Amino acid sequence: MGEILNISLIWSAVRLSTPLVLAALGGMFAERAGVINIALEGMMLAGAFTAAAVTYTTGSPWIGLTAGVAAGLAIAWVHAVASIRYRADQVVTGTAINILMIGVPGFLSGALFLSSGSTPQIPKEHLVPWTPIVMAFAAVPISWYVLYRTPFGLRLRAVGENPEAADAAGIRVAAVRYIGVLLSGAFAALGGAYLSIGQSSLFTRNMTSGRGFIALAALIFGKWRPVQTMFACLFFGFTEAITIRMQGVVKLPSGEDIPVQFIQMVPYLLTIVVLAGFIGHSRPPRALGRPYQKER
Hints:
Blueprint (H helix, E strand, L loop, with lengths): L6 H26 L7 H19 L2 H25 L4 H24 L17 H19 L1 H11 L1 H6 L4 H27 L11 H11 L4 H21 L13 H5 L1 H13 L18
Helix pairs in contact: 1-5, 1-8, 1-9, 1-10, 2-3, 2-4, 2-8, 2-9, 3-4, 3-8, 5-6, 5-8, 6-8, 9-10, 9-12, 10-12
């Protein structure tokens, strides 16, 4: 047991929860504005691939990080236009983006680097392992302040709870929702960029491995509040860290190793359990998923 539980496990949990914190905070801004964003996974993939490709090409992780965020904003804009302007089904739009971003990075990687499985290895000196971690956990109190102590936060929450009343009070509902979705794209892409140029040194196909959905589960578990959501992400990160440590260490009573596939299932099974057990106790914003059309 000592091989699993030690001080380095805490650091691993922080590292592994960083992309979850960023994606979940992004999802919070979109959903507090009333727009369901299950496209977090696709936005993370866009950020991860773009950051890795641009960093390798330019040799600058800062340009790569900026490009990754720009890619997330572009994907978020598509989701926002479809959901807000054209009032499309937000779940269908998000699912379409996720499916699209499973294939597009591999296609572009094959065209640019002659390998559809991954981008080339990025030199160690071009990685940014610390910056996204600091940004992620600094963003939590900042997001709390913005959400609860600024006029923009008040408008965002009002639009997500009662867009009709917000509109009557002179708030531009569509504009606030656009900003919320774009913020979600920027945060999620930053989380994806951390995976490729911070935690790893290249982009591999589907490297997010469902983290966007886990971040969404953490957001629900955290009741759409920044601090509680951060702790939920740390919980999931801790679970993933333990899962990694268990591989090759925990054995069956017969002395054989537990198959890796079963150990790797733990974070995803836990996500299902958390959603099944807590979704009834977490009240989402009242107007979440409900398109709004200004009365004429």
